[in-house]
Amino acid sequence: MLRTLVTLFLFQFLGELFQRGLDIPVPGAVLGMLLFLGYLMLRNKADTELFENAGLLLKHLPLFFIPAGAGLMLYPEILLEHGLAILASLVLGTLIALAASAKLIQLLLNRRVEPATASSPQSLSESGKDEESHG
Q: Residues in the chain with pLDDT < 70?
């Protein structure tokens, strides 16, 4: 478990370094996650220990939302002042993410089906004619 945590914190740290060093307007944790994804893609496999420990961490993921919830309770005036804008951005962001995901899935499924249509009955009958003329 310690090795997994060190690996995850190392990539988060690298993300923070990139964010601060290059002054990128993206959170360091997101950059670290992208670096970690690149690392996993280059390795082309996940460590068994890393995979098992990540599952253990995911079981306790809701605990990471407690600080955000506590922050909401500490600043109710900000929530009252900007609550409508926050709610609108959450709803709009969710709808955009859903639409983009649906479109991506649709494109990937269509791409997957296209090679199967190459062996349609018409193309099979044409290939059969070629074989009959040679035989």
A: 46, 113-135
Residue 116 located in a structural domain = yes
N-terminal to C-terminal alpha carbon distance within the chain: 66
Query: Per-residue pLDDT tens for 27-60?
Result: 888 898 899 888 888 887 767 777 788 788 888 8
Answer whether 5's CB lies under 8 Å from 50's CB. no
Please give the structure tokens belonging to residue 21. 């060093």
Location of structure tokens 């991506």: 104
Classified as helix, coil or strand, 55 is helix
Is residue 70 domain-resident?
A: no
Tokens 């109710």 locate to 76
115 CB-near residues (< 8 Å, 6+ apart): none
15 in any annotated domain: yes
